[in-house]
Write a structure and sequence with these properties.
Number of helices: 5
EC number: 6.3.5.3, 3.5.1.2
Main location: cytoplasm
Order of helices and strands: EHEEHEHEEEEHEEEH
Subcellular location: Cytoplasm
Helix content: 10-25%
Largest sheet: 9 strands, mixed
CATH architecture: 3-Layer(aba) Sandwich
Keywords: ATP-binding, Cytoplasm, Glutamine amidotransferase, Hydrolase, Ligase, Nucleotide-binding, Purine biosynthesis
CATH topology: Rossmann fold
Structural class: alpha/beta
CATH class: Alpha Beta
Pathway: Purine metabolism; IMP biosynthesis via de novo pathway; 5-amino-1-(5-phospho-D-ribosyl)imidazole from N(2)-formyl-N(1)-(5-phospho-D-ribosyl)glycinamide: step 1/2
Number of strands: 11
Radius of gyration: 16 Å
Length: 226
């Protein structure tokens, strides 16, 4: 039996179907998870996809953090379950404090949608093992609340512990401190990033490249070899 990856849908989630497709293309079984259900249906990993959950009221991800499904996700993540947060999912992870820092409005105050070049900084997480440190990839980016911020002490800790997973290259699209595009927790099982790897898994759509597929093949190998 193949590994099962849950994809959570909140009210206002936009990219759950795209994420399910990316999971399937990588050879995994996608399992839809509804925000009101605490039951994770015995999945092996969870993805919190992009979108505008609850309309981004209060703050992006602030209401979703209290959804019943997140109670179980938080518990399981602390126990080692791999969790990936993409865009709005990254915002939810910071609101739950599974990842440090916060996401603020882009420094230019505009929504941005573009292909974005990234550098892989950490290829040792559950979601990045199919990449190499220093590798450059290009995946779509689309957000208005994508500016990653944290206090200097937290930023220094992330750098010192190798927990910056991705960094923006060529241009910083939203003013994120230290060009940070994605980070991980200390255990390496929880990863959040603003760009959208699920939109770069087959050559006919997205960037026309498959640079994002490595997220999903990484977790496949992690789960199969566990």
């Amino acid at each position: 039996m193949t590994a099962r990856v849950g994809v959570v849908t909140f009210p206002g989630t936009l990219d759950d179907r795209d994420t399910q497709r990316a999971v399937r293309i990588a050879g995994l079984e996608p399992v839809p998870l509804w925000h009101r259900d605490k039951d994770l249906k015995q999945v092996d990993a969870v993805v919190l996809p992009g979108g505008f959950s609850y309309g981004d009221y209060l703050r992006a991800g602030a209401i979703s953090r209290f959804s019943p499904v997140m109670e179980t996700v938080i518990e399981q993540a602390k126990g080692g379950m791999p969790v990936l947060g993409i865009c709005n999912g990254f915002q939810v992870l910071t609101e739950t404090h599974l990842l440090p820092g916060a996401m603020l409005r882009n420094n230019h105050l505009h929504f941005i949608c573009r292909d974005q070049k990234l550098r892989v900084e950490n290829a040792d997480t559950a979601w990045t093992a199919d990449y190499e440190a220093g590798q450059e990839i290009s995946v779509p980016l689309k957000n208005i609340d994508g500016r990653y911020v944290a206090d200097e002490r937290t930023l220094d800790e992330l750098e010192a512990e190798g927990r910056v997973v991705f960094r923006y290259l060529d241009v910083n699209p939203n003013g994120s401190l230290r060009d940070i595009a994605g980070i991980t927790n200390a255990a390496g099982n929880v990863v959040g990033l603003m760009p959208h790897p699920e939109h770069a898994v087959e050559p006919l759509v997205g960037t026309g490249r498959t640079d994002g597929l490595g997220f999903f093949t990484s977790i496949l190998k992690k789960l199969v070899n566990a």
